[in-house]
Amino acid sequence: MLKLEAEKKKLRTILQVQYVLQNLTQEHVQKDFKGGLNGAVYLPSKELDYLIKFSKLTCPERNESLRQTLEGSTV
C-alpha cells in the first residue's frame, strides 16, 4: 500500500511539472515571466528560452487528427 501511495505521489508531481511546462508555451505566460508580472518570478529571456525548449522536448504537442480519431472511436 505504501508503494502504491509513493507511485501516486510521483505521478502527481510529474503531471504538475508537465502542466507548468506546457503553459510556458503560451505567449501571455512568457510575458509574465519576462516581466516578473502576475505573481511570476522574473526569468531572463535566455533562461525562459531554455525552459521552453525543454518543454517542447518533454511535452510533445498533441496531434489534432489523432485526438479527433480517438474521440470518434469512443462514441
Question: What features would you describe in this structure?
Answer:
There is one protein chain. This protein has 75 residues and is mainly alpha-helical. It contains 4 helices and no strands. It has helices spanning 2-23, 27-35, 45-58, 64-74. The longest helix has 22 residues, at 2-23. The termini are far apart.
Features:
75 residues; mainly alpha; 4 helices; 0% strand; Caprin; Caprin family member 2; Caprin-1_dimer
**Number of helical regions:** 4
> How does the helix and strand content classify structurally?
mainly alpha
Can you tell me the overall shape?
extended
Strand tally is 0
Order of helices and strands: HHHH
Strand content: under 5%
Mean pLDDT: 84
* End-to-end gap: 36 Å
Summarize the amount of helix as a percent range: over 70%
Query: How large is the radius of gyration?
Result: 16 Å
User: What quaternary form is this?
Assistant: single chain
Protein name: Caprin family member 2
Organism: Homo sapiens (Human)
InterPro entries: Caprin, Caprin-1_dimer
Domain Caprin-1 dimerization: 2-66
Summarize the topology:
Blueprint: H1 2-23, H2 27-35, H3 45-58, H4 64-74
Short description:
The protein has 75 residues and is mostly helical.
